[in-house]
Design brief:
Elements: E1 4-6, H1 16-20, E2 26-28, E3 41-43, H2 54-58, E4 64-66
Antiparallel strand pairs: 1-4, 2-3
């Protein structure tokens, strides 16, 4: 089961979640663009994610859901 879920259609690509991740595991997509024209956030290495939720707390649009 995935530790993070991203509602990519709501992401505005602000990058706040990227800077909030203490392990540097969240990044803006280099291959996808959402319906708003922004690169959505994505988790790069699920195995190293600790579900700390810093990314979700920082997201102003509630794009990220964390599972423990």
């Amino acid at each position: 089961m995935s530790k993070l879920s991203f509602r990519t259609e709501l992401c505005k690509g602000c990058g706040l979640c990227v800077t909030a991740c203490p392990r540097g595991l969240v990044a803006l997509s280099e291959t996808e663009i959402n319906q708003k024209g922004h690169p959505p956030a994505e988790l790069r290495d699920e195995e190293r994610c600790t579900s700390c939720a810093f990314c979700a707390i920082m997201c102003p649009d509630c794009v990220i859901e964390v599972f423990k």
